[in-house]
Design goal:
F-box-like_dom_sf, single chain, F-box_dom, 15% helix, 5-stranded parallel sheet, FBL15-like, F-box domain-containing protein, alpha/beta, 343 residues
Length: 343
């Protein structure tokens, strides 16, 4: 009589034999959760690499990812994105990630209106342009009323912000390498009337169409603006005004402003570097800076300082002051002297 060493393990069936594997007998909600955690969910779920039992489940995924490929063509064709979104059956989408290569602005416009009313989470778009001689276009951004995070890197494509509508749930907005176009101004779109819950705003390596940017917000906590210029003026913005009862941190770099106005009673940290650098000798007038931040605890001021044109107001809670590096002797002696005044 044969001795048994214990209960026998059930034999796993190879899905390649045409039968269901053990994973495939799991409930749909568990399979969907597994697929949602894969990095290439949308593309792989629509191919034969998965069991037949899985192939239709991608239509119910809350996360859709269209990554760059490893072989030409590296970017997914816009028509495939449109096809996937129109076939998608989930009531809402929590995260849409689209990575593109040399995508025309018009091709992005094909699928943005499809996703706008269904997105209840994050939108991430990354476009890689290698051909710098190729004509750039303008992406018209619809109003994402239910999105809570939007991250756009258009690699120098134009972006037309929606002239109407409220981004009612948006808390995070990051825009990199874009050219603002259209009648809607940047300050209007990020202020409280149109983004009532926006907490974090970041804009970098971009162009705006207005020389005056005014931000009024009762919800913003953090603002970061770096290397933002005008389309037609290498000198950059003329006026940046930030009025916010809530903002705690402001980080400004390489803006070449003529005037900086900040009214932020709750502001704790202000970092500024190269904001008033004048790139052209045409305008040699001193910038005017007026900062009202009575709760300020950290100040980094890496620029010239003159009491007649730079006013910080009372800073009774200041604990950390950084005036930048400077040479005691040398070509920047005048600039260093201005910084010493701040100390």
């Amino acid at each position: 009589m044969e001795q048994s060493d214990g209960p026998k393990r059930p034999k796993l069936v190879d899905a390649a034999d045409g039968d269901e594997d053990r994973l495939s007998v799991l409930p749909d909600d568990i399979l969907i959760d597994i697929l949602a955690k894969l990095h290439r969910t949308t593309m792989d779920a629509r191919t034969s690499v998965l069991s037949r039992r899985w192939r239709g489940l991608w239509k119910l995924l809350p996360v859709l990812n269209f990554p760059l490929g490893t072989e030409p063509p590296l970017g997914i064709e816009p028509k495939h994105i449109v096809s996937a979104l129109t076939s998608h059956e989930a009531p809402v989408i929590r995260h849409l990630i689209v990575s593109l290569r040399e995508a025309a602005a018009e091709s992005v416009a094909m699928w943005l209106p499809i996703i706008a009313p269904r997105l209840f989470g994050e939108l991430s778009i990354f476009n890689l342009r290698w051909d710098r001689d190729r004509e750039i276009g303008t992406v018209e951004l619809p109003c994402f009323q239910s999105a809570d995070r939007i991250c756009l890197n258009l690699d120098d494509h134009g972006l037309a912000l929606p002239p109407s509508g409220v981004f009612a749930r948006l808390t995070y907005l990051r825009m990199i390498s874009i050219r603002m176009r259209g009648p809607c101004r940047l300050g209007d779109i990020v202020s409280s009337p149109r983004c009532p819950l926006l907490q974090k705003l970041f804009l970098r390596d971009s162009y705006v169409q207005d020389d005056v940017v005014v931000i009024h917000s009762e919800s913003l906590l953090e603002i970061g603006i770096d290397n933002v210029l005008l389309h037609h003026d290498a000198l950059g913005l003329r006026i940046l005004a930030i009025c916010s009862e809530s903002v705690l941190q402001i980080d400004l770099k390489n803006l070449a402003l003529r005037q900086l106005l900040v009214v932020a009673p709750a502001l704790i940290s202000l970092k500024e570097k190269g904001t008033h650098y004048i790139a052209d000798a045409v305008d040699l007038s001193q910038p005017v800076v007026n900062i009202s931040a009575p709760q300020l605890m950290l100040l980094e001021w890496n620029d010239s300082y003159d009491r007649s044109s730079v006013q910080f107001g009372k800073m009774a809670h200041l604990q950390w002051l950084h005036a930048g590096q400077f040479l005691v002797y040398g070509s920047d002696e005048d600039f260093a002297h201005n910084r010493i005044r701040l100390l």
